[in-house]
């Protein structure tokens, strides 16, 4: 795969391996914080910051961290950065802090961040990990902003809190509720699938080649056996 | 072994580094967060005291304040912003009230409530720039009497609290506490436990009699004066004229005996009259049940509790009420249940069939009031029949 070029690493997170719309990771904050554009953008930037920082630090420490305790180490690092981001947001953006509530702290257990740490940062250089974090973060933010735009405009007749008067009579209230979130999420996934058809890695075959992470995976079929075992059960 | 030691060292190392990092960031952000939160809290304070500067929280545990006060802030100019939690129609309701140094209200606002009518949202505006006396004159809102009365009481508490916090002193005892204190002072032997005596004889110049639960005498209330009567019947006062008068009256009360009246011998006495007894002086003591909330035809059961209101009435043979008492009731809490309050049933004392209907009803409990008054009317009718007359047709 050509993914190993620096530009490729940065860009793959945006569409081709978009964490939310292709890898289907981090669905909880995706559904919960996309009722308005401001909250979604704030969430995206917060996650991006944590992603870049934790990716860099984990990559830096990848040769020191023993295999057996790598997950606790990752979690400590990620939780630390999340708390730092949380304190900064609380101090300088109190309105955003109130808007995001518990979801800010929940970035700690966001699959995207732990996933990138495990799949990429733990095996690649600091520079590449930073680019990977940046790309994934941008992809996450764009997905959130796209989704929240649809939901806020259709559901609340406003964009980033600014009312759109001519949309007012056509408000679809359910868009701001959980079912509307699910609906928009599904449609966006379908849209990305159509756009990337033939280019995005298809998951129809559960083989390593079909895996979005195939380009940099060193597990060489280890997870494949797990999948097969799961299917057999 | 070697690898697990390495794991421990690495994990501890990472934790230490992250902790130091967190401590660093926290030292920068914590003061800013604190400042933001203070600004948000002060915004609420400023709303009720726009002229206030440099609010500072007061430790209220150091003062004896009205029980409703939950928080107090002192302001540079000597004013206070008091936060109170009181009970309105049903549940807790939080009011914040600014009191200026001169004792006037700078503003009052309801912070949270579950009141039903929403009247509490704007009612606070009525208090702006008023002093304690003017606050008392602010009218309650009809249909939201309980809520608005609670609001008024809270504002009053805030004024008192401000006086106390400023170093003054105010009598913050409730009416019940004042009564209990007066009774205990008049008859220390009563050990602070008294029950109001149901009066069945016509007595002159005594407003109420309380007997000590331990049997060590009683206390007579004459206007504002509380006079103890010990177990031998001696009045504990230096005023000999008053003592002689009270002793004589107390003799009548304690000597009074009642004999039951056989109601089957009389026709036309309403079935809700449970029992009647007659004193040696000819007065009647009637036990009557009144239908409460939900009555339609006149005397059906209370639909919610299935209970009547049981009332005791003493009356002269001429049909003048001596004393009234609500013995038991199961009316709606905080509405109809007010009929068990002496403030309500005490109004009937001294009334006759001609003027009993002028008694002020219970706000929000028209049917309870109606049932109660109907029961009182049946007592008048019963006494008229027992005295050989004929009951007035309804």
The helix/strand class of chain A is mainly alpha
Return Rg of chain A in Å: 18 Å
> Biggest interface: chains and residue counts?
A-B, 20 and 21 residues
Number of strands of chain B: 14
Order of neighbouring strands in the sheet with most strands of chain A: 1-2
**Classification by helices and strands of chain B:** alpha+beta
Based on CA inertia axes, which overall geometry of chain B fits?
A: elongated
The number of strands of chain A is 2
- Spatial strand sequence of the major β-sheet of chain B: 1-2-3-4-5
Q: Low-confidence parts of chain A, pLDDT < 50 over ≥5 residues?
A: 224-233
Broad shape of chain A: globular
The portion of residues assigned to helices of chain B is 25-40%
N/C terminus separation of chain A? 33 Å
The low-confidence parts of chain B are: none
What about the largest sheet of chain A? Answer: 2 strands, antiparallel
Average residue pLDDT of chain B: 81
Alpha plus pi helix count of chain A: 10
Number of domains of chain B: 3
In total, the number of domains of chain A comes to 2
Largest sheet of chain B: 5 strands, antiparallel
Describe what you observe in this structure:
The complex is a heterodimer of chains A (233) and B (394). Chain A has helices at residues 6-12, 27-32, 37-60, 70-92, 94-100, 102-105, 111-121, 126-156, 178-195, 222-232; strands at 158-159, 162-163. By secondary structure, chain A is mostly helical. Chain A has 2 domains: 2-200, no CATH class; 203-233, no CATH class. A two-stranded antiparallel sheet of chain A has the order 1-2. Residues 224-233 of chain A have low confidence and may be disordered. By secondary structure, chain B is of the alpha+beta class. In chain B, a hairpin with a 5-residue loop joins strand 13 and strand 14 (321-328). Chain B has helices at residues 2-48, 120-123, 132-137, 145-165, 175-186, 240-255, 342-345, 366-386, and strands at 56-58, 69-74, 80-87, 92-99, 105-112, 194-196, 208-212, 218-222, 225-229, 258-260, 273-279, 284-290, 309-315, 321-328. Chain B folds into 3 domains: 56-165, no CATH class; 186-255, no CATH class; 259-386, no CATH class. In chain B, the strands form 3 sheets. In chain B, strands 1-2-3-4-5 form a 5-stranded antiparallel beta sheet. Chain A binds chain B through residues 61, 64-66, 68-69, 72-73, 76-77, 79-80, 83-84, 87-88, 90-92, 94, and chain B through 3-4, 6-7, 10-11, 14-15, 18-19, 21-22, 25-26, 28-30, 32-33, 36, 40.
């Amino acid at each position: 795969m050509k993914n190993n070029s620096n530009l490729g690493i940065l860009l793959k997170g945006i569409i081709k391996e978009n964490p939310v719309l292709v890898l289907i990771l981090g669905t909880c904050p995706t559904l919960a914080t996309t009722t308005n554009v401001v909250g979604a953008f704030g969430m995206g930037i917060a996650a991006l910051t944590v992603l870049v920082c934790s990716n860099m630090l984990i990559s830096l420490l990848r040769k020191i961290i023993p295999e057996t305790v790598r997950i606790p180490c990752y979690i400590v690092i990620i939780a630390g950065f999340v708390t730092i981001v949380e304190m900064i947001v609380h101090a300088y953006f109190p309105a955003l802090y109130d808007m995001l509530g518990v979801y800010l702290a929940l970035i700690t257990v966001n699959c995207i961040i732990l996933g990138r740490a495990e799949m990429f940062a733990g095996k690649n250089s600091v520079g590449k990990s930073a680019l990977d974090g940046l790309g994934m973060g941008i992809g996450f933010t764009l997905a959130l902003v796209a989704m929240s735009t649809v939901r806020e405009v259709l559901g609340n007749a406003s964009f980033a809190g600014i009312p759109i008067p001519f949309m007012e009579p056509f408000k679809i209230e359910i868009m701001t509720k959980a079912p509307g979130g699910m609906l928009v999420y599904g449609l966006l996934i379908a849209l990305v699938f159509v756009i990337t058809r033939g280019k995005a890695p298809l998951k129809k075959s559960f083989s390593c080649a079909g895996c979005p992470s195939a380009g940099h995976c060193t597990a060489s079929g280890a997870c494949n056996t797990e999948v097969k075992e799961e299917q057999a059960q | 072994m070697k690898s697990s030691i390495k794991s421990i060292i690495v994990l501890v190392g990472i934790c230490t580094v992250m902790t130091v990092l967190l401590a660093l960031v926290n030292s920068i952000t914590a003061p800013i967060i604190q400042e933001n939160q203070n600004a948000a809290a002060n915004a609420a304070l400023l709303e009720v005291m726009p002229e206030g500067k440099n609010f500072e929280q007061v430790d209220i545990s150091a003062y004896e304040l009205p029980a409703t006060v939950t928080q107090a802030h002192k302001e540079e100019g000597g004013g206070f912003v008091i936060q109170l939690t009181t009970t309105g129609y049903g549940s807790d309701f939080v009011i914040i009230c600014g009191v200026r140094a001169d004792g006037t209200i700078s503003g009052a606002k309801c912070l949270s409530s579950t009141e039903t009518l929403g009247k509490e949202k704007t009612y606070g505006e009525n208090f702006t720039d008023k002093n304690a006396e003017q606050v008392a004159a602010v009218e309650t809102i009809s249909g939201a009497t309980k809520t608005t009365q609670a609001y008024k009481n809270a504002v009053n508490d805030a004024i008192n609290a401000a006086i106390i916090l400023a170093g003054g002193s105010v009598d913050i005892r409730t009416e019940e506490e004042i009564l209990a204190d007066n009774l205990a002072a008049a008859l220390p032997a009563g050990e602070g436990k008294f029950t109001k005596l149901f009066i069945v004889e016509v007595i002159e110049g005594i407003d109420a009699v309380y007997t000590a639960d331990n049997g060590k005498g009683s206390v007579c209330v004459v206007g504002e004066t509380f006079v103890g009567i010990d177990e031998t019947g001696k009045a504990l006062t230096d005023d000999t004229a008053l003592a002689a008068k009270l002793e004589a009256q107390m003799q009548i009360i304690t000597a009074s005996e009642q004999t039951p009246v056989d109601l089957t011998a009389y026709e036309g006495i309403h079935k809700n009259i449970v029992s009647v007894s007659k004193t040696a002086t000819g007065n009647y003591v009637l036990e009557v049940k009144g239908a409460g909330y939900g009555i339609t035809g006149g005397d059906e059961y209370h639909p919610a509790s299935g209970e009547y209101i049981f009332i005791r009435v003493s009356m002269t043979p001429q049909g003048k009420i001596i004393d009234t008492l609500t013995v038991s009731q199961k009316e709606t809490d905080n509405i109809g249940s007010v009929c068990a309050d002496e403030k309500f049933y005490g109004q009937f004392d001294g009334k006759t069939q001609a003027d009993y209907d002028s008694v002020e009803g219970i706000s929000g409990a028209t049917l309870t009031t109606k049932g109660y008054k109907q029961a009182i009317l049946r007592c008048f009718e019963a006494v008229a029949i027992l005295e050989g007359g004929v009951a007035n047709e309804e």
